[in-house]
């Protein structure tokens, strides 16, 4: 589904991604962890073209993202993204936020679109908020709406860029529970950047540990958390466990 081959990314002289080689299979749930500034968010943002790579090859759903002829709108139809700060349309109701992309991009029948949107709101526990404006919601509720909005496009892959990092602690659990349910019930490919280690351990098939723009360890979840091989990863986990 997603394949990196020798991918490099620079911001001026700063080498943000260094020779990334990574293959993510269809239906896998892969978690990216590592210290701040390690390149996790940059990597995930390259997958739907929010960041362009400078060297190497990046294949997503059979498309080469480094080729100029690649239609990024086609990629984004099939690769959803959930951001740290929700990115909801504040001038539209919760229901309208979810219905907008399927209406404009998929040309979905309006009655079917509304039925799907309400079902997704029910799935994330917010059906009663359908007619609310985003400004009336808590941060956790906004993030659950953002997840429902991404699911409305029936994506093949869903990217999460630290979806709980902007939330108050008491709001985190509801969002993580929705993500756990998606991971357990769907055939979607999930790529998740998170600092929630308990959640990462519970949902992931694989863990990618990054530092200084490099992948230092790529292992099955149980193997990584029980017995990390890389010294930097060992130190990172020991520090996380202390806190």
Key terms for this structure?
single chain; 243 residues; alpha/beta; six-stranded mixed beta sheet; four-stranded antiparallel beta sheet; 10 strands; 39% helix; 25% strand; globular
In terms of topology, how is this protein built?
Layout: E1 2-11, E2 14-24, E3 29-33, H1 40-46, E4 55-60, E5 63-64, H2 72-78, E6 79-82, H3 94-104, H4 110-123, H5 139-151, E7 157-161, H6 169-185, E8 189-193, H7 197-203, E9 206-211, E10 214-220, H8 221-226, H9 231-242
Parallel strand pairs: 3-8, 3-9, 6-7, 7-8
Antiparallel strand pairs: 1-2, 1-4, 4-5, 9-10
Helix pairs in contact: 3-4, 3-5, 4-5, 5-6
Descriptive report:
InterPro entries: AAA+_ATPase, ABC_ATPase_HisP-typ, ABC_transporter-like_ATP-bd, ABC_transporter-like_CS, MetN_ABC_transporter-like, P-loop_NTPase. Keywords: ATP-binding, Nucleotide-binding, Transport. Residues 2-237 form the ABC transporter domain. GO terms for molecular function: ATP binding. This is Amino acid ABC transporter ATP-binding protein. With 243 residues, this protein is α/β, with parallel strands linked by helices. 39% of the residues lie in helices and 25% in strands. The protein is built from nine helices and ten strands. The protein has helices at 40-46, 72-78, 94-104, 110-123, 139-151, 169-185, 197-203, 221-226, 231-242, and strands at 2-11, 14-24, 29-33, 55-60, 63-64, 79-82, 157-161, 189-193, 206-211, 214-220. The strands form two sheets. A six-stranded mixed beta sheet has the order 6-7-8-3-9-10, sandwiched between helices. Helix 3 (94-104) packs across helix 4, helix 3 runs parallel beside helix 5 (139-151) and helix 4 crosses helix 5 (139-151). It is globular. It starts with a strand and ends with a helix. The mean pLDDT is 92.
């Amino acid at each position: 589904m997603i394949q990196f081959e020798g991918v490099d990314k620079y911001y001026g002289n700063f080498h943000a991604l260094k020779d990334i080689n990574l293959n993510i299979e269809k239906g896998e749930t892969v978690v990216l962890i590592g210290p701040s500034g390690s390149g996790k968010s940059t990597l995930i943002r390259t997958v739907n073209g929010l960041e362009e790579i400078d060297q190497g090859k990046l294949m997503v759903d059979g498309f080469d993202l480094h080729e100029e002829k690649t239609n990024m709108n086609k990629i984004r139809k099939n690769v959803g993204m959930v951001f740290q700060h929700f990115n909801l349309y504040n001038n539209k109701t919760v229901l309208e936020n979810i219905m907008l992309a399927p209406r404009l991009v998929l040309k979905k029948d309006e009655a079917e679109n509304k039925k799907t949107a309400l079902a997704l709101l029910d799935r994330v526990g917010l059906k009663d908020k359908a007619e609310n404006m985003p400004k009336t919601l808590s941060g956790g509720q906004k993030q659950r709406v953002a997840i429902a909005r991404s699911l409305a496009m029936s994506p093949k892959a869903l990217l999460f860029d630290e979806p709980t990092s902007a939330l108050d602690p008491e709001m985190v659990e509801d969002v993580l529970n929705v993500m756990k349910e998606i991971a357990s019930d769907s055939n979607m490919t999930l790529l998740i950047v998170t600092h929630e280690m308990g959640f990462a351990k519970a949902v992931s098939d694989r863990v990618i540990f990054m530092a200084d723009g490099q992948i230092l360890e790529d292992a099955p979840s149980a193997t990584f958390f029980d017995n990390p091989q890389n010294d930097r990863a060992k130190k990172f986990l020991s520090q996380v466990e202390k806190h």
